[in-house]
Amino acid sequence: MVPKSTDSRPTLVFAIAGSLRAASWNTMLVQRAAALVPETVVFDIFDELGTIPHFNQDTEGDLTPPEVPALRDRIERADAVLVATPEYNSAMPGVLKNALDWASRPPGESVLADKPAAVIGASPGRFGAQRAQAGVRRVLAAIGAEVLEDELPLARAHEAFDEQGAIKDAEIEASLAALVDKLVATARAPVPGEPADLAVYSVECQRLANAT
To answer: Smallest Cα–Cα separation from 80: which of 6, 170, 13, 2?
Structure first.
């Protein structure tokens, strides 16, 4: 199990937008999420999605392309993962699925295992990539990530941002901030059996002993 962040260092969120487009609305959505967090949270925004080779089991192990360990290392260092997905034909883009497939390997050693993760999405349609978000959540859950069920659909994304990159709809912007706050809180929650929990358990045992 991956240790969760319980010390005083900033919480590191690995963020990835599943689009290769230079003016991607999902990249803007990730950037906006990064702008809404306090100084105790740091975003590592991955913008090399287009460099990840197609997954090929024949190139695993010693033949793994160098771009893949670099991706895995950045995910492993992070306390949580935020994925922003477009929606193409009711599903996530192939480039995003490809990156998640590489991150899921090797079996039993995925850097996404037990990693708190949340999914958001933007599209020019009416539903804000909801079906693609559901698909990403299913894939992350299958890999073994600790997936938040919350979603953030940003519909009519081509009209959603102002010139400063803020979301025009204040309610949606507040929902984005709340989702990221929940992701960070999940990442910082102590894992059962870690020292923080043991200390609480010890205090409770002492209290019960004194009460008898």
So the answer is: 13
